[in-house]
Design a protein that fits this description.
single chain, about 20 residues, mainly alpha, 1 helix, about 0% strand, rod-shaped
Length: about 20
């Protein structure tokens, strides 16, 4: 579960970076 959460957070961060 921790691994999935980490992956999700990383993807979200990347999405925000692309948005900006």
């Amino acid at each position: 579960m921790i691994r999935f959460h980490f992956s999700l957070r990383r993807f979200f961060s990347l999405f925000l970076f692309l948005g900006i």
